[in-house]
Each structure stands twice: as structure tokens, then as C-alpha cells.
Amino acid sequence: GRTAAVCQRGTPVRCGQAIRLTHLGTGRNLHSHRFTSPLSGNQEVSAFGEAGEGDYLDDWTVVCSGTYWVRDDEVRFQHTSTDVFLSVTGEQYGRPIHGQKEVHGMATSSQNNYWKVMEGIFMQPSEAFQMEQYHAEL
């Protein structure tokens, strides 16, 4: 969930919902602010906070088609405070990790800011959600 909100595990993510993305290994959130990124000159994106705790600059809106973010669909993430799109282009760092690409925020939507889940844990939707999907009025 977004900062200061509780998100129950397994709850589907709605298109247009604000979320935080937390790196499991470090416990830091994907964060952005109005600073220039070092390689591309776009907006800097970094890791921030401790154990998933951070601030309002860790909130990203899920931009997708339909009602929910679906497992195999491409999505965009738009920073809720600065409106940039989470992006990656061709700029690569030489150090500390040679070949690592710079992730940054871009002011406009483009092919560089589509994301698709490639790894992770898929959680079956709750029974209540499944019932909602197939409910029909008589």
C-alpha cells in the first residue's frame, strides 16, 4: 500500500492505485524527488527508507488498462508527487556495478517506461475477489 496505509497480502492492485515498491533484499522503497539523475539528466530514482518504512516520495501510481494490474500485462508507474514515469533507457554505470542501467523518472510516457513482471511470487486472489469477478446480477 501507499505510505501509512496497510495492504493485505494477496489483495489485487487496482489500476490507478498508489503503491510502494520495496526491495526485498534491502527493505528500501523505490523513491524519487526533484533531483537530476547522474547519467541521463532525467529525474533521479533511488532506494530510500528502512524495513519498508519511508515517506510520501515512495508512492507510485499503477497506470494500466482495465480494473486491476494483471499478471502478464505491461504497466507504467507514475510518481504521485512529481508525475514522472519510472523509466530505463540505455545509460549504464561503469561503477559500482559495471553495466547496471540507470533507472530514472521521465516527464513523458514512452516505450522506455513500460514494465512487466518477470519474476516473483504469484499469489492467488482471495475467494471474495474471485466471487466479485464472476458475480452477475439476475
UniProtKB/TrEMBL annotation:
Highest rank taxon of the organism: Eukaryota
Pfam families for the chain: MIR (PF02815)
Keywords: Repeat, Signal
Listed PROSITE patterns: MIR
Gene3D superfamilies: 2.80.10.50
Cited SUPFAM superfamilies: MIR domain
InterPro entries, alphabetized: MIR_dom_sf (IPR036300), MIR_motif (IPR016093)
Protein name: SDF2 factor
Top-level taxonomy: Eukaryota, Metazoa, Chordata, Craniata, Vertebrata
